[in-house]
């Protein structure tokens, strides 16, 4: 369990502009607080959306190739019950987010049924899907974007777990 947390924190620290200590603090906060925080806004605003838009075909190719085995792993190894049938939905959502057509709150709602531990275990592997992208700048920007979106998901999942325990 501790190695899972370390792997998650390391993935976020390597791809986002937060230290492990800052990340532990962020992960303990309510979602609205994180979404409204200056640090989170700066991190999201620092994404190079022009580069992301220009390289959507690259990301789409990576996701089309890498997501089906990732989904199988989620279903068969982590026991996630609701897994997309194809990479089209995820690719479409990422494109929509880059074009400011999808919201973080919608992303959170889509992922509410995913158990927190499965979500946290999957993030290093999901961010790692882009390791094969040869252009370092493109690879790093996509990994940063995916990490930033996943950070929000983990904050929401942890908040949901805390609320369930409090009841």
Write down the oligomeric state.
single chain
Low-confidence stretches: none
Main sheet record: none
Percentage of residues assigned to helices = over 70%
Report the average pLDDT across residues: 90
State the end-to-end CA separation.
24 Å
| Cα shape | globular
What is the radius of gyration? Answer: 15 Å
Order of helices and strands: HHHHHHHHHH
Number of helices: 10
Question: What class, by secondary structure content?
Answer: mainly alpha
Number of strands: 0
Structure commentary:
With 167 residues, the chain is mostly helical. 75% of the residues lie in helices and 0% in strands. The protein is built from ten helices and no strands. The chain starts with a helix and ends with a helix. The model has no long low-confidence stretch (mean pLDDT 90).
Provide keyphrases for this structure:
single chain; 167 residues; mainly alpha; 10 helices
Walk me through the topology.
Elements: H1 2-15, H2 20-27, H3 31-36, H4 38-45, H5 49-54, H6 56-76, H7 88-98, H8 104-111, H9 116-128, H10 136-166
Helix pairs in contact: 1-9, 6-7, 8-10, 9-10
In short:
By secondary structure, this protein is mainly alpha-helical.
